[in-house]
Amino acid sequence: MNGLVVYESMFGNTQKVAQAIAEGLSSGMHVDVREVGMAPDKIGEQVTLLVVGAPTHALSLSRENTRRQAAEQATGSLVSKGRGVREWIGGLKKPNKKLAVASFDTRMAMPSWLKIAPTAGPSIEKRLRKLGLRVVIPSESFAVADTTGPLESGELERAREWGRSLASQFSSAGTKTAFSGQRPSR
């Protein structure tokens, strides 16, 4: 089994989460991690699990104008400088319909009464489903303390655990059965 983690990251927070998820996934499969600008436009048959993540911009996936606004806030260089996950998914060429997929996002920590606010992860799921792909676990969000970060305490370990849980479910369930959908506890 082979996994591919594709991420978009402006300030490096989503990149760190993607790498932590890949570390967790590596407990059960070979994993490649790619920044969205370096991600393949066609997912090969050897990839059995695709995990896609992006930061939440304006309650959803980034757009060219939200990436430009984020760039104006940057105090250092940006990680993702070109296309975003939205455009990458839109340009994927005939993905293997047997490919299992999962998504994640990063978002600012919110007060408990706002936890129902939309994030990028469900938007990623929706786009992957429209391609006919099978989402195997609900999207997960990882919190940053402020727009540019850092990640909230414990989020990287939670990301590793989410990756381990996904790898465990994937290897025990196989590629043709449903997943339990259980998430690691927070």
Folded structure, characterized:
- The protein has one domain: Flavodoxin domain (Rossmann fold, 3-Layer(aba) Sandwich).
- It has five helices and six strands.
- Strands 1, 2, 3, 4, 5 and 6 form a six-stranded parallel beta sheet that branches.
- The longest helix has 19 residues.
- Helix 1 links the parallel strand 1 and strand 2.
- The C terminus is likely disordered.
- It is α/β, with parallel strands linked by helices and 186 residues long.
- 44% of the residues are buried.
Give the SSE map.
Layout: E1 2-7, H1 13-25, E2 30-35, E3 49-55, H2 64-73, H3 85-90, E4 100-108, H4 120-130, E5 134-135, E6 140-144, H5 155-173
Parallel strand pairs: 1-2, 1-3, 3-4, 4-5, 4-6
Helix pairs in contact: 1-5
Please name the defining characteristics of this protein:
single chain, about 190 residues, Rossmann fold, 6-stranded parallel β-sheet, globular
Number of domains: 1
Number of strands: 6
| CATH A-level architecture | 3-Layer(aba) Sandwich
Poorly predicted spans: 175-186
For the record, what CATH class applies? Alpha Beta
Coarse shape: globular
Averaged pLDDT? 87
| Distance between the ends | 28 Å
Q: CATH topology, what is it called? A: Rossmann fold
What pattern of helices and strands is seen along the backbone?
A: EHEEHHEHEEH
β-strand amount: 15-25%
Our Rg estimate from Cα atoms comes to 15 Å
The CATH homologous superfamily: Flavodoxin domain
Number of helices: 5
Task: Summarize the amount of helix as a percent range.
Answer: 25-40%
Structural class by SSE content: alpha/beta
The biggest beta sheet is recorded as:
6 strands, parallel
